[in-house]
Amino acid sequence: MSHPRHQLNDVIHAPVRFSIMATLASCDKAEFAFVRETVEVSDSTLSKQVSQLEAAGYVEVTKGYVGKRPRTWLSISEEGRAAFTEHCAALRAIAAGMSGEALP
């Protein structure tokens, strides 16, 4: 299996989950509401997709309070960051037509 598509991660590949991972890869942690607004999905959609990423060990969910208001923070795990990096590399290889030419 030499085609780079075999390196794509099925958990990350779904568009909403990919967008969540991309958002979290750029920060230490983010509030649930920030990720929801950035990815442009409903609370229930984000919750469902985050649950799948959490089950895979790619995202960590932390609950707490700001004052008396409950908050949920999301962060990418080390395993999640490695999986996301590998997934992006496979996408770049596919986009390059496997010619070996580097893409920006």
Describe this structure as you would to a colleague.
By secondary structure, the protein is of the alpha+beta class. 52% of the residues lie in helices and 17% in strands. It has helices spanning 10-13, 15-25, 32-39, 43-55, 78-95, and strands at residues 30-31, 59-66, 69-76. It has a 3-stranded antiparallel sheet. The longest helix has 18 residues, at 78-95. It is elongated, with a radius of gyration of 15 Å. The two termini are 25 Å apart. The model has no long low-confidence stretch (mean pLDDT 93).
Which features does this protein show?
alpha+beta; 5 helices; 3 strands
Biggest β-sheet: strands ordered side by side in the sheet: 1-3-2
Poorly predicted parts? none
User: Helix amount, in percent?
Assistant: 40-55%
| Tally of DSSP helical segments | 5
